[in-house]
Fold:
Amino acid sequence: MTHADNKTWSVTMLRLQRLFFLLTSASLLVAAPAVAAEWTIVPDGSELSFVSVKNGDVPVSGRFPGVSGTVSDGETIQGEMNIALDSLDTGNPGRDQNILEAFFRVATAGKVARFELLSAKKVADGTPERWQVEGTLHLVGATHKLSFPVELVRLSRTERLLVTPASVPIRFADFGLTEAAADLRKRCNHQELLELATVQARLLLRRK
Structure:
């Protein structure tokens, strides 16, 4: 084999090695599963707030600061949020007790509600990002599926802020709470109690 032949052979082998490397790298990228990032809801900086209406047009607002949970954003986005019902704060301790006892019936139904995040789909890039989430709310022994938009703001490499840009309606009948709402109305001597509440979330997420 001449010197020219050796040079041609070397160039050919080098090209084949590069091609093999590129093909192998591409196959690994395709086959490699997405690495899941785990995010924790930080209680200090997170809360659910709500507004209900009594006597036709009188708003009653409150919040649940006792929220916790995790979100995983691997190949699929899943997670859960736990709401401590007994963290309820309407600014009136007597009213809080009436709601917990007559409406949520924490003595028998438990003190924790849970939202199970089943899926999330990004609908718009930008700041903030917009997502549509689907999930199931577990409340006083009943479950009901919910779908609503959220906005996600990047605070740092390890922190995100998730908020609901619009109130999410929670209808009492969907959770079998019509009778409980009537009991609460009687206990509080209200003439009328609208059988739904609107809820908003503000969640601080921190990467584990």
Notes: The two ends are 61 Å apart (CA to CA). The first helix runs from residue 3 to 31. Residues 19-34 have pLDDT under 50 and may be disordered. Helices lie at 3-31, 93-103, 106-109, 178-187.
